[in-house]
Amino acid sequence: MRFANVKFGFAGAKKNPFGIPLPELGVSELLGLPNFGDINKRINESKKKEETGSGLGDSYNREQYNRDFRNMLMTDSALRQYELGREADRNMRSAQQYFQMAGAGQESAARRRLMEDQFSPTKISQQRLRAQTGEAALMDAVARQGNTAVNIATAGLAPRGRAGGR
Q1: Where residue 1 falls among pLDDT bands split at 50, 70, 90?
Q2: Which residues are CB-contacts of 29 (< 8 A; sequence separation ≥ 6)?
Q3: Where does residue 14 rank: exposed (0-12), middle (13-18), buried (19+ CB within 10 A)?
Q4: Which residues pair with residue 15 across a beta bridge?
Q5: pLDDT tier at 68 (50, 70, 90 boundaries)?
Q6: Dihedral over Cα of 41, 22, 29, 6: its sign
Q7: 70-128, pLDDT tens digit by residue?
Q8: Taking the alpha carbons of 81, 86, 87, 93 in that order, is the dihedral positive or negative?
Q9: Which one-letter DSSP state was computed for residue 11?
Q10: What 3-state class would DSSP assign to 122?
């Protein structure tokens, strides 16, 4: 009898069109239709052989894995270098802006101090006193120089030793 091996239910389904198993009642044997279960098994096996590259049943192709891993590392390092370059550019622009602001602040502070020195009554009186002190010291030095010259001149006219004097 032809239908002795017939299994009922989804577990024995030979037809699997559109991804849905259909129960088999021996109709495909009666009509001589192909067994989609065997065909799908053969297709899956051939796909596995193509993916692994060998008929040994490797779970993955080690060469392809290494190539992909190397490419991923190279891409990551290139991206990291790009990111580091962008960060360095940002930091440099930020530092330049900071130094420009700091320089402008220092320049305005120096101008304020100069203005305070020029127009402050205390500073003006200090400068006047300094000038008067310097002028008095100069006049004193000139007077001392004159006194020294007189002393030298008179010392040359006085008699020396026992011959003419005391």
Answers
A1: very low
A2: 2, 3, 6
A3: buried
A4: 22
A5: very high
A6: positive
A7: 999 999 999 999 999 999 999 999 999 999 999 998 999 988 888 877 777 888 888 88
A8: positive
A9: T
A10: helix
pLDDT at 54 over 70: no
What is the C-alpha to C-alpha distance for residues 43 and 152, in angstroms, rounded to an integer?
131
Model confidence, pTM:
0.31
DSSP 115: H
In whole angstroms, give the CA distance from residue 85 to residue 91.
10
Of how many residues is the chain composed?
A: 166
What does the alpha-carbon distance between residue 123 and residue 114 come to, in Å, rounded to a whole number? 11
CA angle 92, 96, 100 (to 5 degrees): 170
Extents of the domains making up the chain = 1-56, 60-148
What's the rounded Cα separation, in Å, for the pair 30 and 24?
11
Residue with tokens 């008929």: 55
